[in-house]
Structures are given as C-alpha cells and as structure tokens.
Amino acid sequence: MRSTCSLIIILLTLSACSSDSVETSDPTPSQVDLIDQPDIIEKIHSNNLAIPDNRFSNNYEVLIFGNSHTSKLSSLIETLISTGKPYAKIKIINAGGGFLDNITQKRTDLLENNPWTHVILQGQKYSQSGSIIYPTTAAQMWIDKAKRYKITPILFPEHPQEGNTTEGGRVHRIHTSIANIQRSCVAPVGLAWDKVITIEPQLVLHSSDGNHAAFLGKLLTAFVFYEVITGEAADLLPFIKEIEVEESTQQLLKQLASETIQSNQPCLFGN
C-alpha cells in the first residue's frame, strides 16, 4: 500500500460535513473522482485480509472512532463486558474524531501504536434521502489498517432517526456492502432498533431531537456491541442493578439484541 501520509493526503479530498449523520448536498468532483481512483482502490482490495478473531480474549482493548452518536457508549460497553467477563481486563477509549473520512495523523498513530483488540468504526457518510452515494474508501482504509495490526474491525451502522422505518435497514446495507469489499464485522445496530421499535414502540430509544439515542437506545446499542465484541450472548447477561433500567426492560433489550445478531451474523471469521 502507499504510505500512510500519501493515503491521508488523498483521502482528505473527501468533503467535510457539519451533520452528525447525513449529508444532503451534492458530492464535490473530488469525491466522485476518488471512487474511480484505481490505484487506491486496487491496493486496498488486493490486501483483503481475514477478520482477526479477538472474541475470546482475556484482555479487551477497544478503540472507538466516530461522532456524537458514540457519546457515552464506552462506559456502557465496559459495564457489560465487566459483568459478562469479570476476569477480563478492559480498556475502552472513545477517540471521537468525527466522520471516517477525517483521516488525521493523530487517529492513525492512535490506531497503530496501541495493542487494541477491537476498533469500532462509526461515521460513514450517507444521504438521508438515499439519492446520493458517498465514497466508502476511507472506511475500507481503516478496516484494512486494523486487520494489518490484528485488530478486529467493527462497522457501526447508525440507528434510524425517529419515525423513519426504512433508514435502519438502508444504512445497514451500506455497511454490509463495505464489508463485502473489505472483510469486516458489521454490528446490526439499526436492525436491532427496528426490532425493538416494532415490538415495543412505547420504549423511548431516541432523545428529544429524534436523531441521537436516549439512554435506553444507548443501552440497546451497547448490548449489540457486547455480543459482537465478546462472542457471548447478550441475553445471557444477568440483571445489572447499576444500570438504572428496570429488569424487564433490560431483559427485553438484550433478548432482541441477541435475536437480531442471530439473524444477521456480524462477523464471518476464517474467510
């Protein structure tokens, strides 16, 4: 592959965006041109390594890249892992950084110079209307780099916005299409949200802005990541008193998280 610096320079031609979830303006010519850059794409694709399997580690070191949709998620995931794997050492760092096409030296150094077992990648741009297709080259680059360092990459498709019954599935498909190009785990977050909203619509998963997650939504997302990271079924976790959600609701959320994962396997290891 080209050097890290070269990739940074090239990938920074992707446009920036002020929204946390979507981009509605037309892509710039540089975005469109990047999709067809054969030298970049070929070098990433020619090194499509298998997904490193770190599920059964006794030492979980998880890095999160993303925007405000990852806020306060790390502490919940840590609580779940420490409950389900009480003897494991756990370190979860939310490095933020915004969209995945924000390729910085700081992000690159952080990924490369620490013994991570997993990296959660959130912030692939997508069009809310579905009318614009955005480049996924940056996401592919992060996946490829993670695998080179024996880190399990996990794509994080965002949950749907409130009242949108098609967004969760569409965003999930965007991310599985990335994994079809560059092997990666895909956490079925949006699909789990769709299931809960369908079965128990009275549960408040969204914050008041209808976009970000309320605490229950974050907990549901954390249950999904617990199972993807550890390989242990979320619905086998005990009731956790320190999470201030009643036992029946915790049980429902983790049950539906596990059901969603069973129907949508996140990781195809060994391929």
Automatic annotation (TrEMBL):
Membrane-spanning intervals of the chain: none
Organism: Colwellia psychrerythraea (Vibrio psychroerythus)
InterPro entries in the cross-refs: SGNH_hydro_sf (IPR036514)
This protein's record includes keyword Ribosomal protein: no
One annotated GO molecular function: hydrolase activity, acting on ester bonds
Name by which UniProt lists this protein: Lipoprotein
Signal sequence interval, chain numbering: 1-18
Record keywords: Signal
